[in-house]
Amino acid sequence: PGDDFGMMKEVLTRRFERLLKEDPDRQGETWPDLLLIDGGAGQVSVVAGIMADLGVDDIPVVGVAKGIDRDAGKEEFHRPGTRPFALRHNDPVLYFVQRLRDEAHRFAIGTHRAKRAKSVSASPLDDIAGVGPGRKRALLAHFGSAKAVARAGVTDLQAVDGISEALAQVIHDHLNER
Questions:
Q1: Backbone φ and ψ of 75, nearest 5°
Q2: Range(s) for CATH 3.30.420.340 in the chain?
Q3: Is the pTM of this model over 0.85?
Q4: Is the torsion defined by CA of 95, 101, 105, 108 positive or negative?
């Protein structure tokens, strides 16, 4: 599990320190009118503290959390220092906030999956000039793993389609430099 509070602190600090640097008088349109947080009282409390530390605690903070039974349509809204409140299940504002949250989740999950897929497919072969996706695929198909490619000799590397003697030497040297 990640450190949600730490990540929120990092993101908000980076964002608002940049805004304070670029627009210290807060006259521009880049300043938010409201911070809508995906979370309950704990997240709202942390965000309110971060905003106070940054001196921008006049921006309202509202957290949106699923209700006790975690059903959509029963969301609770949290503000610092107040009791949670709810909107009617057919309120258009509730519908809008649900869509906003769902889109934020979709974006975050998609970004996480793309990042994870990239890290899973990363290998030492990625750093070798002259070895692109096609040659990387050919090397891994021939040898089975990046470790096996590293153990291969120059002559063995040349046996792979698209790998010249010169490139085989570059690959061998790169993977075996110490």
A1: -65, 150
A2: 4-121
A3: no
A4: positive
Reply yes or no on domain 4-121 having CATH 3.10.450.50.
Answer: no
124-176 maps to CATH 1.10.150.20: yes
- For CATH 1.10.150.20, list the domain ranges present in the chain: 124-176
Token pair recorded at residue 178:
């110490």
pLDDT 10s digit of each residue in the chain, 178 long?
567 888 889 999 999 999 999 999 999 899 999 999 998 999 999 999 999 999 999 999 999 998 776 666 689 999 999 999 999 989 999 999 999 988 988 998 888 888 877 766 678 888 899 998 899 989 989 998 888 999 999 999 999 999 999 999 999 999 988 5
CA distances from 131 to 5, 43, 83, 91, 114 (A): 41, 46, 59, 56, 22
